[in-house]
Structure formats: C-alpha cells, structure tokens
Design brief:
With 355 residues, the protein is of the alpha/beta class. The protein has one domain (23-302): Leucine-rich repeat, LRR (right-handed beta-alpha superhelix) (Alpha-Beta Horseshoe), CATH 3.80.10. 42% of the residues lie in helices and 10% in strands. The chain has an eleven-stranded parallel beta sheet with strand order 1-2-3-4-5-6-7-8-9-10-11. Helix 3 (63-74) links the parallel strand 2 and strand 3 (82-84).
Amino acid sequence: MGNEHPHPQQQGDPNHNEFLQLFQNQAEFNLHQWSITKLDSSKIGIALKTNCTLAVLELGDIGLEGLTNVCDGLKENTSLKRLILTNIGHEGAKILAEALKSNAGLEELVLEYNDIGDDGANAIGDALVVNKTLKKLVVRGNYIGAIGAQHIFNALKTNTSLVYLDLYENCIGDEARLHYADNHSPMTNVGTERNVFDGLNVNTSLKVLVLGKNRLGDWGVNELCNIISVNHSVEEMHLQDEHIGLDGAVALGDTLKVNTSLRFLDIDCNRIGPDGAKAIADALPKNRYLKHLNVNAFCIGTEGGNRICEALLTNTSIEQIEGIELKKFGNALGLSAEEANKSNEEIIALIRSRR
C-alpha cells in the first residue's frame, strides 16, 4: 500500500509537510522498501503522537536513531494496532521495549528475523510485565535461547493481555542442551526459575503457542508437557520439527489424557515412530477436547497410521487430521471402497455418524 505513494525524499517541501499529511490520512502504511532518513523518522514519530487513523505500520531498516524517533511517538500513540519492524537487533529491541511500557494501544508486534537474541528478548519480557494491550507477539528467527525465552514466559505470570506467542525457529533447545551438559538438569534452572516454560503454570490468557524448530528434543518437550498438563488456557500448540522421539510422544500422550484446553496440536516433521503414534493414539479415546491433529504419516509408518485411525473410532472430538490420508486406512476404519474416496473431514464425520 505504501509503495503507491511518492517517497518522502521526493517531496519538495524540506519539512515534508505533504508527506506528513499523507501519513496522517492512512489506515495502513508500508514503508518496508523505503529508505527512511533520520528526519523522516522524526516526522513519523511526531505524526504518531497525534495520528488517530493509522492502524498498521511496517518499516524497513531505519537504524537505531530512526527507531528511537519512531518509538518516541509510539509511547503516546493509542491508534496503531499492528507494527512490523526489520533489522532492529538487540539494542533496537531495548529501545522498543521502553516504548511498549508506555504505549496503550498496540495489539500486534511482528519482529521476524531481527536478531534480537536473549538480550532483546529479556527487554521485551520486561515490557510485557507492564504492557496491558499487546495481544500478539511474533519473534520467530531471532536467536533467542532458553534464557531469553524464559524471560518472556516469566512475564506471562503477570501479563493478562497476550493471547498469541510465536517463538518459531529460535534456539531454546540448543542453549538448554548446553546447560544440561554442565548441570545435568535439562531445561531447568536455566535462569532463576525451575522451568523455561514455568510462566505458563499460572497464565490464563495465552491461547496460541507457536514453537517449532527450537530443537527441544524429548527432554524439552517433556518439560513443556509438565506445564501444559496443568495449564488451562493454551488452545493451539505448534511443535513442528522439534526432534521429538518416542519419549516426547509419550509425554504428549500423557498430557492429552489430562489437558482440557488444547484444541489444536501440530507435531509434524518429528520422528515419533509407530510406538510414538501409539502413545498419542492411546490418549485420543480419553481426550474429549482436541479437534485438530497434525502428524506426519511418513514418520509413523503404516502401523502408526493404523493406531491413530483405530483411536478415531472411539474419539468424540477430533474434526480434522492432517498429515495422514485416512482413505489409505480404510480397513482400520471399516470403510467401504466408495467411502474410502472421501476427504478426511468427510470420513471423520462418517465415523461419528455411525456411533
């Protein structure tokens, strides 16, 4: 949307009044591809203090000075709902965090691949303790380790506004693995708390947790499951490619037997094997809440697929299975040749109608 408008540097007025007027009248402004000068960023900061129409702002690499100017305006702004930033680094995250402590309107912050690291994550975590409006935080691909992740999760002990947290493709498990080598206690005592995910123990507002590609491994997933087993708010959990094996699958199965909030579980691209699939399948007849399960058929084999399908015959909540073509397991499901040509959703509905 922003690319439809002239670059601010092309305005004839050195004060960029025309640019400011244009900025004031937009509901969404994308400046990701624009080269923003210090003066431009200062004007954006000033405009944010008085703007009451702009809801979405996306900025490219504006440097620390530029970010400081924008954040000065963000502290007083109440209309901006979604902010997307690029290349801010850990120092930029600290500047942004201070603005978040004062801001009373922003609902979504996207910091994908900004290299904020643990220092930046710590600053964001501190801001979450104070901030009352942010609902969605995306910090995927930021080299956040166990310490930084723990700081964010600890903030959720008091934060009651965040409902969506995306930590995909960080290095929580890598750092915890190093700690384990030194202290023989995986995922525990990384910082000051017992468990990296400990903040979820008391949190009642987070609904969506996106992990994946954090190399949590079986021991990391086990620690997460210890928390999710008693958490009553998380409804959607993504654990793609987390190096989960049999032990992790068993922990997930045990969690599904007692958890009453999870509606969506994604464990795609994990090597849980047929025995891991059995552990998940054994939990499904006991679980009356999970509606969507994503598990990779290649990783569980025919035997694992049969186990999952057999569990569907008695499960009462599942509405969608991804990663497995149910029509390939017609015998286990008691399907006729005609029925086996239906979609997964149709087959599940058919199974349910026969009860």
